[in-house]
Amino acid sequence: MPNDPPQLHVVIQAGGKGTRLEQYTWNKPKCLAPVDGKPLLFHSFDSFPGARFHVIADYKKDVVSRFLQVFRPAGDYEMVQVSGTSGNVAGIPEAIATIPPDAPVVLVWCDLKFNEPPAIEIGDSVAVGTTAAFTCRYRFTADRRLEQHRSDTDGVMGLFVFPRASMLADLPRTGELVDWLAGSGLPLVRCQIEQVKEIGTAEALLGQWSAANHARFFNSVEISAERVVKRAKLPAFQSLLDGEVAWYRRAAGLGFHNMPRLLAEEPLTLERIHGQHPFEMSDTTRGRTGVLTNIMQRLSTLHGLAGAPALPAVAREVYLDKTLARLATVRALLPELVSVPSFRVNGTQCRNVLHPSHADWLAGLVEASLPTEFRFIHGDPTFSNMLVDASGEPWFFDPRGKFGSNWFFGDANYDWAKLYYSVVGDYDNFNRRQFVLEMEGHDIAVQIRSNGWSYLKGLFHDYCDGRMPAIRVLHGLIWLSLSGYVEDDYDSILAAFFNGLLILEDATG
Questions:
Q1: Phi-psi region of 306 (alpha: psi -120 to 50; beta: other; left: phi over 0)
Q2: Fewest Cβ atoms nearer than 10 Å: which of 222, 279, 287, 360?
Q3: DSSP bridge pairs for 409
């Protein structure tokens, strides 16, 4: 329609090294730092629905480009790749050159996370985003000027709305945007926004992770004094909650007691269990031994409730087909991996399962680990999915419900491998991003903060003697599969992959 307003264009400044985020930007730029289930950059996309986006990339721009290709955002975007310039105006002139002169433009820094789409109005003046939510280097004065003066009431936060792209025609290729804007003579108006956070430092990032609950990105969890309510954020994941409901009903019917009572199905409502995750416990060696023994006894009880004939095709689906499908993410993010036969991970030379020469090796490991029977299983008994009450009794929740395409019954070794994943593999700390990934060529280092339980790995032999070779292989496959599941964090994807290679190599060496 000829009278329709021109489309809003949003230029996201995602260049720069993000050095204040320390190790969290060693392998990726700060715009891909994970916050509340998605990278910061994706929060920017969500904050301006319907806009056309121009993403300025400089530091590790190939990582950003591939990530957006693999996990394509809902918004329409194009990459603006720049190099050899300095200051936070870098790339903005190149982006503006592709925008119609009369189109409105928003400039926004990628380290801002808005709790809701900002309420901006496009008038005749340049709207300058200001906030009291955090301290800024510049402030917006009462007489509508920009002044370099720290402020925690009317600070200039990194959001600028230009009624027309042509107003940026004289922007230099280097320097600071606020310095240029202060001397540009353009009319300015304040746009106060409080529902925003700046995630520009490692401290701020860690604080955001600490404040968030650890529900998966597709679930919301509400916890009250007596109950826990779970809802699917995305309709595609409602089936997972339906599977949980079905598992709780079946487990109760079989007489299993170490789980919360199902109070309602829609939404999924459970009795609240008061306790701690095992990885949160600061207990004595004897206390931890007792807790882990209780967990293993209750898991054995669960497996003893009912059995079924093994379905080898289903087990292959879980162990081989799913793993290879998940690894497609890694292959897309780093296509060159396919050409590398091995990596040195934490000092050990490890076969790369993505290399064609090792396809038969991986398939052989799976065949040697197939079960001879199926048992009633939980499907995901990691420390994150259990609580230990004051008496040391474990309570299991968040069941998987299915083993591949099979409901309720699956390989008991898979449950044991998931528990091993927490006890020995420190998965729960990895899940909370308490790890460091370093990559230099084909040399990889993955360091996961210990949760203090791995010294008890010998207890597994009491319950799984003779099955440990298979459990250790499954442990490696679980890590490889995780690499295609943690879609919100580039580092987690790659660290899970390389850790999986190391565990498989150790299991078969």
A1: beta
A2: 360
A3: 376
What is the distance between the alpha carbons of residues 498 and 244, in angstroms, rounded to a whole number? 31
> What is the rounded distance in angstroms from the CA atom of residue 72 to the CA atom of residue 83?
24
| CB-CB neighbours of 475 under 10 Å | 25
Structure tokens at 335: 């296509």
Between the alpha carbon of residue 286 and those of residues 58, 290, 386, 452, 456, the distances in Å are 53, 6, 20, 13, 11
pTM value is 0.92
Closest of 482, 471, 380 to residue 431, by C-alpha: 482
Pairing of strands 105-109, 9-13: parallel
Q: Enter the tokens of residue 167.
A: 């107003």
Q: What is the pLDDT along the chain (509 residues), one digit of tens a residue?
A: 456 778 999 999 998 788 888 898 999 999 999 998 899 999 999 999 999 999 999 999 999 999 999 999 988 999 998 866 678 999 999 999 999 999 999 999 999 999 999 988 899 999 999 999 999 999 999 999 999 999 999 999 999 999 999 999 999 989 999 999 999 999 999 999 999 999 988 898 888 887 765 555 567 889 999 999 999 887 877 888 999 999 999 999 999 999 999 999 999 999 999 999 999 887 777 789 999 999 999 999 999 999 999 999 999 999 999 999 999 999 999 988 889 999 999 999 999 999 999 999 999 999 999 999 999 999 999 999 999 999 999 999 999 989 999 999 999 999 999 999 999 999 999 999 999 999 999 999 999 999 999 999 999 999 998 899 999 999 999 999 999 988 889 999 999 999 999 999 999 97
Query: CB count, 10 Å around CB of 317?
Result: 16
Under 8 Å between Cβ of 345 and 440: no
**Contact criterion met (CB below 8 Å) for 189 and 123:** yes
Tokens of 268: 């999924």
Evaluate the omega torsion of the peptide bond into residue 118 and state whether it is cis, within 30 degrees of 0: no
